[in-house]
Request: fold
Amino acid sequence: MSLKFDLRPSAAPRSDAEREAILADPGFGTHFTDHMAVATWTAQDGWGDSAVVPYGPFQVDPATAVLHYAQEIFEGMKAYRHADGSVWLFRPFKNAERFNASARRMALPELAEESFVESIEALVEADESWVPAGGETSLYLRPFMFASEAFLGVRSAQRVQYCVIASPAGSYFSGGVRPVSIWLSREYTRAAPGGTGAAKCGGNYAASLVAQAEAARHGCSQVLFTDAVERRWVDELGGMNVYFVTDRDELVTPELGTILEGVTRDAIIALAPELGLTPVERRVSLQEILDGLRSGAVREIFACGTAAVITPIGELKDVEGTYQVGDGQAGQITSRLRQALLDLQYGRTPDTHGWMHRIR
Reply:
């Protein structure tokens, strides 16, 4: 049975003036709305205590399991304001499906997909005035789940907390879309076969931070990992999937297994044929990419994810040098795919795939 998330309104919501000041320059992930959706699971009773409540801190015991064993997962998605004022989600049941896949891998309880989407809808309805309008603004949504039982023992937690928080987000590229530089990590790997690479859990991101810092020292925005076994096959970026456009009009991306099954990644595969591209999921060696950049066989490279949608990559770097992608600017295919996806999310083109989910 689907959970119900009834509203328990905040007694002290932000004033209209305060909220409008934040929406004028929201940034990303720094401001949060007045409410959050919550539910609790116990091994004895299952899911319960579901509601939309005032935003606020959790009280956790020093022995809370997540602090010691990192048993947690999360999702990232957005609510979009269309020109007519309506508010929509993009493929929320796909996020729900991935959330449960992550839960299974991290030995956490699954949440019915209907309850997952209901929690999102209830929170967005309660804080609908926080959904910005104009440009590429949106309301970023962060569902997450963590082991909340207080115990020191290596086993699955018997008590789990679920929550959804929301944060208004400005345009990722406030000054226009700019190609980024990517560092090729030779020392660190992101995930191994049989590991947690396909789960959206915080530990994967924590493990990438030292490599991300290395990338920053070399003037790069992100790091690209290779596989953990042979150190030759392209994996993904620290927080995004990656695509390669070839001179044969193929849109190539690494196959699933140790990488996260991105919702944006999946949408791009579906959209590719509409732009005359053949999507290909396969193993891709780093050497193939570097040789392709030299020969022209690889014409464009871009990254994709919820936050930035599609990000053009202008160059790759490693200890041996710099490898420019095309002319170093956003490629034509990259730009067309990005615009097609944004037009769909913001209601500027018909939703022929049935991906958009109206809230109000």
